[in-house]
Design goal:
By secondary structure, the chain is mainly β. It has a single domain, classed as Beta Barrel (Porin), CATH 2.40.160. The chain is 13% helix and 64% strand. It contains one helix and eight strands, in the order αββββββββ. An eight-stranded antiparallel beta barrel has the order 1-2-3-4-5-6-7-8. Strand 5 (103-120) and strand 6 form a beta hairpin. The radius of gyration is 25 Å and the shape is elongated. Mean pLDDT is 82; it is low at 15-25.
Length: 180
């Protein structure tokens, strides 16, 4: 009789524990836009004259504000002149709209400085110049998993020393990978 009671209690406890385990696994904790989180970005895209690639770092100050820094490389051709740019960007980003912890719409602004290398292959002439300015834009983060988001970037940069025009629009896509 004692063995039957022990087996009955054992199965009831086991069944109850398994039910609790199933309940706790159904709870999904979204760790997105949390203070102290860090992320690495890689973005590629196009502008009016060529293509660009950008590698970045984001640090979340709180759930709506983040510090961002990045290095971008741009290559293009304007008429007979080709150019290569390398720029350092540092700025802030703010979440203005959120859809169910899945989609975040952010606006950002930054300062930038870098080097522009121009080369005219027909005249065998090249020059480099230091350039600086600022930028503003927006991006959309679409989370694919808890740690990886698809980025869609739209930026307008104002460059003070640029010989091909002061305003440069960039549009691109990439990934944001959370490392913490």
């Amino acid at each position: 009789m004692m063995i039957k009671q022990f087996i009955t209690v054992f199965f009831i406890v086991s069944f109850t524990c398994s039910l609790e385990a199933q309940d706790t696994t159904d709870i999904k904790i979204n760790l997105r836009h949390i203070s102290g989180f860090k992320a690495l970005d890689i973005v590629t895209g196009m502008n009016k004259f060529g293509k660009y690639m950008q590698f970045g770092y984001s640090y979340y100050i709180n759930n709506r504000t983040m510090f961002q820094s990045s290095v971008s490389w741009e290559r293009g051709k304007i008429n007979i002149a080709g150019y290569d740019d390398i720029f350092l960007h540092a700025g802030m980003s703010h979440t203005v709209y959120k859809i169910k912890e899945f989609c975040f719409i952010n606006i950002h602004y930054c300062g930038l400085l870098g080097v522009e290398n121009n080369k005219n292959t027909y005249l065998d002439k090249s020059e480099s110049l230091f350039d600086y300015g600022g930028g503003a834009g927006g991006n959309i983060e679409l989370f694919l998993t808890d740690r990886i988001a698809l980025l869609l970037n739209f930026d307008e940069y104002y460059r003070l020393q640029n010989k091909f025009g002061k305003f440069h629009f960039h549009a691109g896509a990439g990934l944001r990978i959370f490392v913490q």
